[in-house]
Design goal:
- The protein has helices at about 1-15, 50-60, 110-115, 185-205, and strands spanning about 20-25, 25-30, 35-40, 60, 70-75, 135-140, 150-155, 160-165, 175.
- The chain is of the alpha+beta class.
- The protein is globular, with a radius of gyration of 21 Å.
Length: about 210
């Protein structure tokens, strides 16, 4: 019985510590940043910054998972970039070229930087995601020059800014979770399973 309880508790605490959680239905939840990514990292293909921002803002995804009630999520956006991002080991030089030269590196403060440098997601190691590409637009303009916008490279981990007219990929993200099981219900299910296991163990003890 103690062994069973230990396994259950280990499962619960391991799940609670997870940074990326596959919620099913094409949703990946980051419980550290409290944001949800689309599992498919290349829904819209290559396009300019303005078009990608508009695409993300107009994106609607119907949640078809059992228990979700067919809710539609329409609050998608492109991931944001801190400027300046103090977590980076180098700082972007707008005179260094696009998109690799003079780029920020080892950034964890921005959403895509966190995904790459903390969660280990890249174009070669997509983890829970599918279709992870190379360079993605951020939804954040480059403040010193509004003709530029921030981008992130999922092959090298570089973070920089470039002309909005360049065609890059887009990855949609939204605030919060998409879990379909309310917390009280989850606790009730766990309690019911635990009681059932205790009863099973007691019956075996008296046989």
């Amino acid at each position: 019985m103690k062994r069973i309880l230990g396994i259950l508790l280990l499962f619960i605490f391991t799940s609670a510590d997870a940074a990326l959680i596959n919620r099913g239905g094409g949703f990946i939840y980051d419980d550290v940043l409290d944001i949800t990514w689309t599992q498919n990292a290349n829904i819209n293909g290559l396009d300019t910054w303005d078009n990608q921002v508009a695409w993300a803002a107009g994106l609607s995804i119907v949640d078809t998972r059992p228990g979700a009630g067919g809710v539609t999520y329409s609050d998608w956006r492109l991931p944001t970039t801190l400027q300046p991002d103090a977590s980076c080991s180098t700082q972007f030089d707008p005179g260094g070229g696009f998109p690799l030269r003079g780029a920020d590196l080892n950034c964890t403060g921005s959403e895509m930087g966190h995904l790459f440098n903390v969660d280990g997601i890249s174009s070669s190691t997509p983890g829970l995601f599918t279709n992870v590409q190379t360079f993605y637009w951020s939804g954040t303009e480059f403040a010193p020059n509004p003709t530029l916008a921030w981008n992130f490279g999922f092959s090298s981990g570089s973070q920089g800014a470039g002309s909005k007219s360049v065609n890059l990929f887009a990855w949609s993200v939204r605030p919060g979770d998409v879990s379909v099981v309310p917390v009280p219900a989850a606790v009730w299910l766990f309690g019911s399973g635990l009681i059932g296991l205790m009863g099973l163990a007691r019956r075996k003890h008296f046989q």
